[in-house]
Specification:
Layout: E1 17-19, E2 37-45, E3 51-61, E4 67-70, H1 72-75, E5 76-77, E6 82-83, E7 86-91, E8 100-111, E9 116-121, E10 150-155, E11 165-177, E12 180-185, E13 197-200, E14 205-213, E15 220-224, H2 225-235, H3 244-263, E16 265-267, E17 274-277, E18 282-288, E19 291-296, E20 303-311, H4 318-334, E21 339-345, E22 348-357, E23 360-369, E24 372-381, H5 384-398, E25 402-403, E26 416-420, E27 423-427, E28 432-436, E29 445-451, E30 458-465, H6 475-483, E31 489-498, E32 501-511, E33 518-528, E34 531-540, H7 541-546, H8 548-557, E35 559-560, E36 571-572, H9 589-597, H10 617-635, H11 663-671, H12 691-701, H13 716-724, H14 741-758
Antiparallel strand pairs: 1-14, 2-3, 2-7, 3-4, 4-9, 5-6, 7-8, 8-9, 10-11, 10-13, 11-12, 12-15, 13-14, 14-15, 16-17, 17-25, 18-19, 19-20, 20-24, 21-22, 22-23, 23-24, 26-27, 27-35, 28-29, 29-30, 30-34, 31-32, 31-36, 32-33, 33-34
Helix pairs in contact: 9-14, 10-12, 10-14, 12-13
Length: 762
């Protein structure tokens, strides 16, 4: 498996009404102290203890000790329907410069209907210095804004650069949202000014920029601050609420970034202890556990450089590099001037790629260093006046990159990984290793595991809130939805249990990036109240089958410690691969596997199912009755049938004897008038069953209602019902067609699944 080679940072917001505000415009007048409008970034704490910026916007200081009014949507996680966990505050002390981002805040109160929130800036910044007394605005206003009055919106719009911005316009009307009054304005808006400051021409604080209509230009809305007065007066004195772990992590990251920019250098404390220095005029935009990005800002076309640390569980060797080579080939095919060469990078062997993309030359350097693959990326403009300057600036930084630890080929990783929140542990098998996700992307990834010398497979564990539209669905409905459009489904199971957590499982096969390179992917989803674990094992098909026992062992080691469970200690995940050696790619592969997983069908001693072997009357009867019995057990109504009391002992059919394995099934079916014999007194158990007979038995066992009239021929009503219920698959063209084992499995599994989902047959 090849890991990511780039970092991505994205804040997005997509609603029919977009939370918005402000734009580039007129610079504000300088002040001796701070400007009352602040910039806010809201962070989510991940279960790996990383934090991720989710929301951004603006706010207004309303007290000298740091009380801030903003929008609710700036500080709120819509997916999880709760406030975010930590808040960064940037204060402008010089309007010609970027704000100072070394402050954190805590949530005092919020109201979703009014879309308002109150934050309190902490009394100490990330370096332990006291918060100064701040300029602020009074929210207790006597102003009475009216249509055509001038309005100014102040904030930090996404399209307005890094400095504070003012936009001017007028009040063009009024509107109501959630029973609260909003001013309508023709002032241009951008999402970064959400929660910012709206002034009238006299300098009164009159509203909170909140909405922009996504389908109309120059129509924005800001909340009349007078509407919020009762709520503000009621909540402003409350004690702030803090997620201490998230806040401490934010303080650490802000301090790390600020210190790197103060010193113009950064050294990673852990392996490979990479260090980098940048000259005056450069700035670190991000410094994270697995990479950083810096940029030279004084050139006409700025030069930027990213460093990425990809940590593996084993030494970076030829297998990993071959997978990287496959990825690079895809780039090579799209860019005619693509060049790849081996280089000496500060004393180490690396390889370098380059290609032209639009008006820039893209460069990438890949350096295998023990168990870490270090990636360096940058771009150079093609404008000749700037190219030489950019190249010189980049080369100057590249020359400072040092690796201050000797290469380590064997990382110190435990066989067992333990999490406290969510509480679980899992132990690897044999030559597998697992480690905690070192990045905040993907945000829901907890841990990733790989197998030695296996460069195609991975086992990942994720944890996330259950999507709102799926919370009320049964596990069967959820797995059916997930697999509805999967063409090469191998198996699915809707009653999985791992150490008491219940959920579902499905396995599918797909073609990988290389032609005819088949992969198998197992997905297990386990519900923990409003959240769920997702365990994914993805590998080449041949590796998947060979690792069957390893994955079973790993799943059986999963231990949940989050809370008390009724089924604690129970495990049942059935099979997640082909049960039989001869059904791979068979059109009824998933039906056979599902029935086998329930114990409804069996194979042969040599591990085969023989899907195209014709099925006889005795075998068909047993399979259909066994499926109905399993259904009754699943329903938990106690209506399972004990067939042992129905043996015929040869009393009914001359060719069914007491010691025949099918005697009791035939006896039950005959008593219930599901089957009958022939005129000569025989049952003919070895006779091949045809489609009409199989449907008749199935409808009788499942008590599916049929029209009671006579038809000619006799089987017409069974065929009609079969077509109505979608039970007659491709290739079944007539009532007298003899059925194979696979075709019967398809019919029985369809009836079983329909019955469990709707009970429409009862």
């Amino acid at each position: 498996m090849l890991k990511k080679s780039t970092l991505a940072f994205a804040f997005s917001l997509a609603l029919s009404i977009v939370f918005a505000f402000s734009l580039s415009g007129v610079a504000l007048a300088e002040s001796d102290s701070n400007n009352p409008t602040v910039k806010i970034t809201s962070y989510k704490k991940l279960f790996t203890d990383q934090i991720l910026g989710i929301g951004s916007g603006s706010g207004t200081l309303i007290s000298s000790n740091g009380l801030v009014i903003s929008n609710n949507h700036v500080i709120y996680d819509e997916n999880e329907q709760k406030p975010l966990d930590a808040f960064e505050i940037c204060i402008t002390f010089n309007v010609e410069e970027e704000p100072i981002c070394k402050y954190t805040a805590r949530l005092v109160a919020h109201d979703k209907d009014m879309d308002i929130s109150i934050l309190k800036i902490n009394s100490k910044d990330v370096f332990g210095e006291s918060l100064p007394s701040l300029n602020f605005l009074s929210y207790q206003t006597n102003a009475e804004p009216k249509e055509e009055d001038e309005v100014q919106i102040i904030g930090f719009p996404g399209s307005g650069g890094e400095t504070i911005t003012i936009t001017k316009g007028q009040i063009s009307g009024f509107d109501t949202f959630n029973d609260y009054t909003y001013f309508k304005t023709d002032t241009d808006f951008d999402h970064g000014s959400s929660g910012g400051t709206a002034y009238d021409s006299a300098g009164n604080y009159i509203g909170i920029p909140t909405y922009i209509r996504s389908y109309a230009e120059n129509v924005g809305y800001f909340l009349d601050i007078r509407e919020a007065l009762p709520w503000l007066n009621q909540n402003i004195g409350k004690n702030p609420i803090a997620n201490i772990k998230a806040e401490n992590r934010l303080r650490f990251e802000l301090e790390r970034l600020k210190k790197a920019n103060n010193e113009l250098k950064y050294t990673y404390p852990d392996y490979p202890k990479l260090s980098i220095e940048v000259p005056d005029g450069w700035r670190f935009y991000s410094v994270e556990d697995d990479g950083l990005y810096a940029e030279q800002e004084k050139l006409t076309e700025s030069a930027g450089l990213g460093v990425y640390l990809n940590y593996y569980q084993f030494e970076i060797e030829d297998g990993y590099l071959n997978k990287l080579e496959e990825e690079l080939v895809k780039i090579k095919d799209n860019y005619p001037d693509f060049l790849q060469e081996e280089v000496n990078f500060n004393g180490y062997t690396a390889f370098k790629i380059s290609y032209t993309y639009y008006n820039q030359k893209q460069y990438g350097i890949y350096l295998p260093y023990g168990y870490t693959l270090i990636g360096i990326s940058y771009s150079i403009g093609l404008d000749k006046d700037e190219e030489e300057k950019q190249t010189k600036a980049i080369d100057e930084v590249l020359s400072t990159i040092k690796l201050n630890s000797v290469p380590i080929t064997n990382p110190d990783l435990s066989d067992t990984i333990i999490f406290e929140d969510p509480g679980f542990s899992v132990t690897m098998s044999d030559d597998w290793r697992i480690q905690k996700n070192m990045s905040n992307q993907p945000r829901n990834l907890l841990a990733e595991a790989t197998q030695k010398d296996n460069f195609d497979g991975y086992l990942n564990i994720y944890y996330a809130q259950i999507p709102k539209d799926e919370k009320e669905l049964s596990t069967k409905d959820r797995v059916d939805d997930k697999t509805e459009y999967i063409s090469n489904l191998i198996t699915k199971k809707d009653d999985v249990i791992l150490d008491g957590l219940s959920g579902f499982l499905y396995t599918n096969e797909y073609e990988g990036d290389n032609y005819q390179e088949m992969h198998k992917k197992m997905t297990i989803v386990l519900q923990n109240e409003d959240f769920e674990f997702t365990i994914i094992y993805d590998d080449l098909s041949e590796n998947f089958d060979e690792n069957f026992s390893d994955i079973e062992s790993i799943l059986n080691s999963f231990t949940f410690t989050g809370r008390e469970l009724e089924m604690k200690g129970q495990y049942d995940f059935g099979t997640f691969s082909n049960t039989f050696s001869d059904i791979q790619y068979h059109r009824y592969e998933s039906d056979i596997t599902e029935l086998a997983d329930k114990g409804i069908v069996n194979g042969y001693p040599d591990g085969t199912f023989k899907p195209e072997k014709l099925v006889n009357r005795a075998e068909a009867l047993k399979i259909i009755l066994a499926s109905k019995n399993h259904l009754e057990e699943e329903k938990g109504l106690g209506d399972e049938i004990d067939f042992s009391g129905y043996g015929t002992g040869g009393r009914i059919f001359k060719d069914v004897r007491a010691n025949d394995w099918f005697d009791e099934y035939v006896g039950y079916a005959e008593e219930e008038k599901i089957v009958s014999g022939y005129s000569d007194g025989s049952f003919k158990p070895e006779q091949t069953v045809n489609l009409a007979e199989a449907l008749k038995i199935t409808f009788g066992v499942y008590k599916i209602q049929l029209w009671h009239g006579e038809t000619d021929p006799w089987y017409k009503k069974y065929m009609d019902k079969g077509y109505e219920l979608g039970l007659i698959g491709r290739g079944l063209i007539g009532a007298g067609q003899k059925l194979t084992r696979a075709e019967l499995a398809d019919i029985v599994n369809d009836v079983y699944n329909d019955a469990t989902s709707s009970y429409s047959y009862y």
